Amino acid sequence: xxxxxxxxxxxxxxxxxxxxxxxxxxxxxxxASVGMNVVIHxxxxxxxxxxxxxxxxxxxxxxxTVTADLRSLDQIERMREKLxxxxxxxxxxxxxxxxxxxxxxxDVTETEWDDIMNINLKGTFLMTRQFMPAMIAQKYGxxxxxxxxxxxxxxxxxxxxxxxxxxxxxxxxxxxxxxxxSAVTVNAVAPxxxxxxxxxxxxxxxxxxxxxxxxxxxxxxxxxxxxxVYFLALPESGYITGQIISPNGxxxx
Length: 253
Fold this sequence. Notes:
Layout: E1 13-16, H1 22-32, E2 37-42, H2 46-57, E3 63-67, H3 73-85, E4 92-95, H4 110-138, E5 141-146, H5 150-153, H6 159-179, E6 184-189, H7 204-213, H8 222-233, E7 244-245
Parallel strand pairs: 1-2, 1-4, 2-3, 4-5, 5-6, 6-7
């Protein structure tokens, strides 16, 4: 339940990182559908972010787009200052931004490793540290990290990505215990195969083989992942914290 003195759910602000397309854009649209304040973060995909913003505004939501390199504390701090100027400090933070990498570990360069860790894991840390103090102060908040099924089971030829997502899962569990006394929940959504641009590196035969391995017989749609994120953000989900929930069509049970 929303504590007394905290604004109602539809008056709250949600910040989604990496929201210009794919799962992030679907999450933004899901929150916008109930008229919430939506902050759409992106790095370089300016026009895609604006298109996501336009689709959110059609629901009557107040929308702000912000750009920042999540590897940079300075840029994150400037983003927070901009949100403060607009009165849009988030009650709900969705750490969705991330990059994937396919290839044998022996072929991964140190630079590639650092980028994967910095964008996926360090970015989640910096964003959370930046915005959780306001949640702690008001004794209410939601932090939802978008992880991956590979952060649970690991994947051959995706060692670096699996490591980063496994780190997010551990981060989620530990921080949930730290913030529970402040009524701030921390959960992770760890999808299986989702029909987004991250699947662009697979050809039709590889995609068909993947679908065959999934008991549900198909990839998830971004809207299905967005629905779970939305549920975890609800006031009535306040007793769910420290959980890694994997919508994967029965692929991993």
